[in-house]
Amino acid sequence: VWTWVLEWSLEAQSWFAAYYVFCWGLGLALLFLPWSFGYGGLLRRVLEHRIFSPLARLTYGVYLVHPFVNLFFTYGASTWFVVTIPNLFLMWLSFAVLSTLISFACYLLVERPVANLA
Predict the structure, then answer these.
(1) How much is the pLDDT for 35?
(2) Phi, psi of 4, rounded to the nearest 5 degrees
(3) 32-75 pLDDT tens trace
(4) Distance in angstroms (rounded) separating the CA atoms of residues 1 and 12
(5) Distance between CA 2 and CA 41 in Å, rounded?
(6) Which stretches does DSSP call E strand in 1-118?
(7) How many CB atoms lie within 10 A of CB 66?
(8) ∠ at Cα 103 (108, 111), nearest 5°?
């Protein structure tokens, strides 16, 4: 079996550790800045399609809920998790679906009624 291992020098590892977050943020800024000024072409029209509107309403709620779902399952388990690819996929899928359902319930019971007050 052929494996390719890239071993970086300590200096290269230090540079990467120091600047990769800045470079990632700069790349995202260069990607999203034109979109905020009305450019973006076909990709912008696809992402602004009305089919993504319900998903856009739920994503922040999923972001807020998912740590609690993860903690509930992790600390509520009676045995250790077996780390296999199918098991990790099923855990990810169940966490994602449950977080989305809880976020949807919070949207219907909290966010939507409060938005209608205004």
Answers:
(1) 84
(2) -115, 115
(3) 888 888 888 888 888 888 998 888 889 999 999 999 999 998 88
(4) 28
(5) 43
(6) none
(7) 17
(8) 40
CA dist list (Å): 80 to 73, 77, 86: 11, 7, 16
- What does the alpha-carbon distance between residue 64 and residue 99 come to, in Å, rounded to a whole number? 9
Q: Report the Cα–Cα distance between both ends of the chain, in Å, rounded.
A: 64
What pTM did the predictor assign? 0.66
The secondary structure of the chain in percent helix, strand, coil, rounded to multiples of 5, reads: 80, 0, 20
What amino acid is encoded at 64 in this protein?
L
Handedness of CA 110, 111, 112, 113 (dihedral sign): positive
Full DSSP string of 46-78: HHTSGGGHHHHHHHHHHHHHHHHHHHHHHHT-S
Are 40 and 70 within 8 A, CB to CB? no
Residue the block writes with tokens 């972001």: 63
pLDDT digits (tens, 9 = 90+) for 47-59: 888 998 888 889 9
